[in-house]
Amino acid sequence: MTNRMSLAVAALLLGGTAVPAAAQAPATGTPAPSPLFTGGDIFNIAYASDPQISPDGKRIAYVRMSADVMTDRYLPSIWLVDVATGRQEPLVAGPGGNRSPRWSPDGRRLAYVSAVEGPGSQLHIRWMDGGQSARITNLPDSPTNIAWSPDGRRIAYLMRVPADGSAIAKAPPKPEGATWAEPLQVFDRLQYRNDGSGNVKPGNSQLFVVDADGGAPRRLTSGGFPMSGPIAWAGDSILLSGNRSADWEKQPQESELLAVDASTGEMRELTRRKGPDTSPVVSDDGRTIAYLGSDDDGQAYNQTGLYLMNRDGSGARRIAAGLDRSIGDVQWSGNQLFVSYEEKGHYRVARVTPAGAVTPLPYDLAAAAAGRPYTGGDWSVARDGTLAFTSGSATRPTDVSVGRGPSARRVTSLNDLWLSGKRLGEVRTLDATAPDGTPVPGWIMLPPGYQPGQKVPTILEIHGGPYTSYGPYFSTDYQQMAAAGYAVLFPNVRGSTGYGEAFADGIEKTYPMPNEKDLMASVDAAIAAGIADPDNLFITGGSGGGLLSAWMTGQTNRFKAAAVQKPVINWTSQALVADGIGFFGRYWMGGEPWEKPENYWQRSPLSLAGKVKTPTLVVVGGEDLRTPNSEAEQWYGALRVQGVPAMMIKVPGAYHSLDGRPSQAAARVTAILNWFDRYRSK
Fold first, then answer.
1. Residues 398, 375: contact at Cβ < 8 Å?
2. DSSP per residue over 50-76, as a string?
3. Whole-angstrom Cα distance, residue 229 to residue 234?
4. Contact residues for 577 (Cβ-Cβ < 8 A; gap 6+)
5. What is the pLDDT of residue 7?
6. Lower Cβ count inside 10 Å, N or C end of the chain?
7. Cα–Cα distance between 223 and 243 in angstroms, integer?
8. What three-state secondary structure class fits 266?
9. 365 close to 379: Cβ distance less than 8 angstroms
C-alpha cells in the first residue's frame, strides 16, 4: 500500500462524522456535547433483550447490553424489574458475559449462564427469596439451551463434546523442550467452518442433565450427528431436534424432533419428513407438543408453520395454516399458544387456539441489535397470559414492555434521559410501486431539522438476507448518516419476509435480478416526494444488500458513490468457500457451479464489473466466513484494474456482523460517510 493510500484509509477510519457547521464544537475550551447523534454515542446506548417473565407474571429478568468504553466491548448483565412498580435491580453484573436467565417452574429460582467466576461460561442458580447465587457446574465448554424439568429438580442443556480428529498429519515425536510449529489443520467435514466461531472442531453437541442443587452432570446422548435446541421436557423425556441420517452433512435443511429418556438416554424420533422440525414446547398438562416446521421442496425460502402432536408423536397436524406468515417462536400459556412472526415491517405476537384460531395482539416488538433496523424481538409469556417483550421505535432502542389483552406499557426507560438531549432523525413511510405493479414498501429517515420541500442527499440502504425485512426501528448507522445531512431510504423489496410466501418467493432462483426495478422505484418515489436530491444519490448495504449495491452499480450510473459491504460478488466462489457449502448451490442456485455455470455467472455482480463507473468503497470483516474476504477482494480488484475509484476496508477480527466492537461500528459508518462526502455535490 502506498503512503498516499495509507493516509486515505486513516482519514476514512479516523475522521469524524460530517455534521452541519452549526453543530460543530467550539475550537477552544471544553467541547460541548453534540446535539446530533455521533459514533461515540454508541457507547451510551443500553439495549434490553431476552425478557423472561416469572411464572406468576410479577417479575421480569432480562439481559441488558451496554458498551464498555475502556475495553471496547459489549457487556451483558442480568437485571430484574418489578412489573407493578417498574423498580429495577441488577442480579448479575461484572466482567464476563451473563445471559440466558430462565425461571424455575415455581418461580423461586433463576438459572443463568455466566462467565464471571470461570473457567469459561458456567451454569448458575439464584435463589430469589434469599438473594444467594451459586455456580452448579464446572464445564469444559459453554452450556446452551438450558431448560428446567417440570418438577424443578434438574436442568437439561446442550454442550459440545470434543472428538478425536484425523491422525493423517501426525508429526514425529518432539524432543523435550523443543519449540515446534502449530500442528497441521485437517478438515474432513463438508461444513468445516462457521461464521462467528471459526473452524469447526471435531465433535458435536450432546445432551446433558444436572441436578439443580449442583453435582456432576450426566451425559445422555452420544453419536456423530448434530443436535440442537431449543429443549423442552415432556414428563421424563427431553425433546430437542437433530438429524441422525448417515449423510446428515449433505442435508442442511433436515432435522427431526427427538425424544430422549432422561433416565436411560434412549432416543426415538417423533417426526419423519423431508424438512426441518424444531422448537418443541409442551402444554401445561403435558399431553400436547407444539413445534415449528416446514417441508423441504428445494426452494430457497419456505415459511415455517405451526404444528401440534400428541406427546407420543402421534396425531401430527398443522394448525393456523391460513396465517400467511413464517412463525418465529411458539410458547404455551394455559390451554392456548402464543406465536411471533414478521408482519409488514413489524414483529407481532398472536394467540392461537389448539383448533387454529388466530388472534393478533396489538404489540409492536423490536430487535435489540441496532446497527440496522431489522425486524424482530424477544418475548416470553406467564401462566396467566401476561407477555414480556422488547419494544422500541425509530428514535428509541429496545426497552422491556409488558402486555396483557389489548394494552401494553413500557416498564424500563434505559435511554430516555441521555437521548432527550439529542436531535434524532425521524422516519416516515415511503411506499413505491414497481413497473409491473408489485408494491415496494419502505421508509425514509430524514435528517434532524428537515424542512418540508427540502431536497437532501439520499442514501439507498439495502437489507441483507435476502429473506429478512427492515422496519421503522432504531438504527445507529442511520442516525449517524442523518446527522451528517443525509436522508436514508430503506425499502423491503421482493424477497423480504413478513409480506406472505408469494412476495418472498418473488426472487426464487432469479435473485438478484428482480430487485433492480424495485430498488429504483423506491428511489424515484423518494425523488417524487421532494425529499431525495436526484443529483446526490448514494447506495450501500450489507451481505445480500452488499450484493445488490454492487449489482446496481453495474445497472445504472445514477449513484454518485457506493459502499459495498460484506458482499457476494461471484456465486461460484461463494457457494464453495462460504460457511454454507452444500446449501447455496442446492437451494439458491438450483444446482452446483459445474452443473449450471451460466446461471451462476449471470447472477453474479462480477459479470457486470466492466460496466461499473461508480466510485466504490468495499467493506468486509477480517474474519467473515459467511461472505468471505475473497468476495470483497474480487470486487475491489475488478474495479481497480479498470481504473474505477475504489478503496477497501477490512474490519480486524470482525465476523459477518461487522459490528462486534463498538469503536469499529462507529468507524465503519464514518468511513462510508467520508467516502460519500468526496463525491457529494455541494
1. no
2. EEEE-TTSSEEEEEEEEEETTTTEEEE
3. 14
4. 628, 630
5. 32
6. C
7. 11
8. coil
9. yes
- What gap in Å lies between CA 97 and CA 275, rounded to an integer? 34
Q: Is 555 helix (H, G, I), strand (E, B) or coil?
A: coil
| Identity of residue 591 | G
Instruction: Return the SS3 of 141.
Output: coil
- Phi, psi for residue 90 in degrees, rounded to 5: -75, 135
What phi-psi label fits residue 582: left (phi over 0), alpha (psi between -120 and 50 degrees) or beta? left
d(CA 556, CA 534): 13
- Of 205, 215, 100, 93, residue with least CA distance to 154: 215
DSSP secondary-structure letter at 11?
H
User: What's the pLDDT at 17?
Assistant: 34
Residues 6+ apart with CB under 8 A from 29: none
Residue 63 near residue 50 (C-beta atoms within 8 A): yes
pTM of the model: 0.93
What's the pLDDT score for residue 10?
35
Query: In angstroms, rounded to a whole number, what is the distance separating the alpha carbons of residues 642 and 348?
Result: 48
CB atoms within 10 A of CB 554: 18
Cβ atoms 473, 367 nearer than 8 A: yes
Burial class (CB in 10 A: 0-12, 13-18, 19+), 297: exposed
User: Which three cell numbers mark 487?
Assistant: 436522508
Q: Which three cell numbers stand for residue 159?
A: 454442550
Spatial separation of the C-alpha atoms in residues 104 and 127, rounded to whole Å: 10
Q: What is the pLDDT of residues 402-433, one digit of tens each?
A: 999 899 999 999 999 999 999 999 999 999 99
Q: How far is CA 427 from CA 199, 542, 602, in A?
A: 41, 21, 36
**b/e sequence 29-60, b meaning 16+ C-beta within 10 Å:** eeeeebbbbbbebbeebbbbbbbbbbbebebb
Q: Quick one: pLDDT band at residue 489, thresholds 50, 70, 90?
A: very high
Cell 439520499 belongs to which residue?
458
Pairing status of strand 532-542 against strand 561-565: parallel
**Which residue shows C-alpha cell 408482519?**
343
Burial of 259: CB neighbours in 10 Å, binned 0-12, 13-18, 19+: buried
* DSSP line for 458-494: EEEEE-SSSS--B-S---HHHHHHHHTT-EEEEE--T
Peptide bond into 466 cis (omega under 30): yes
